[in-house]
Design goal:
10 strands; 2 helices; minor pseudopilin epsh fold; alpha+beta; five-stranded antiparallel sheet; single chain
Length: 161
């Protein structure tokens, strides 16, 4: 008598797929609700845009800059007359509105505090002053900092109450 190979039924496979889908939904929901995770994602996005801007300034041979105020940061190009024009033709450097409970502001440039409405420049030479921007919400703050070699890093810390 030949033994018949037994596999999984369609119902068994569907049950496993449904369980995996539910588990995935729970993981995604927990990640979205995590303030530190959201803060680090925004800091990573900002750090990448800052590095891109510094590199682009060198490649294009022009001065670019970044400003940050409230829940928005944006990038600028310096015109020949010294004024700044907003960059809107680069998807990485397009103005970025942060989530509603986040804020960003320039903190330091060249080791000294800067005004909230300052534009921090990226020179065409690639020789930039160290700078930092403060990204914060009610639970976390992140200092996103660039060094003279245009490397950007960040560190998160819990906000003391």
């Amino acid at each position: 008598m030949a033994s018949r190979a037994r596999g999984f039924t369609l119902i068994e496979v569907l049950v496993v797929v449904i369980i995996i889908a539910i588990a995935s939904a729970v993981v995604v929901a927990n990640l979205d609700g995590d303030d530190r995770g959201r803060m680090e994602r925004e800091a990573r996005r900002l750090a990448g845009a800052l590095e891109h801007a510094a590199s682009l300034a060198q490649w294009q041979g022009e001065t670019l800059g970044v400003s940050a105020e409230g829940g928005l940061y944006r990038f600028w190009k310096r015109r020949s007359n010294g004024s700044w024009a907003a960059i809107d033709d680069d998807s990485v450097l397009a103005p970025r509105a942060l989530p509603a409970d986040f804020s960003v502001q320039p903190a330091f440039y060249g080791g000294t505090p800067v005004a909230a409405d300052a534009v921090l420049p990226f020179r065409a030479s690639g020789r930039n002053e160290p700078y930092s921007l403060l990204l914060a919400n009610s639970a976390w703050s992140v200092l996103v900092a660039g060094d003279p070699l245009n490397r950007v890093h960040f560190a998160a810390q819990a906000v003391s109450r």
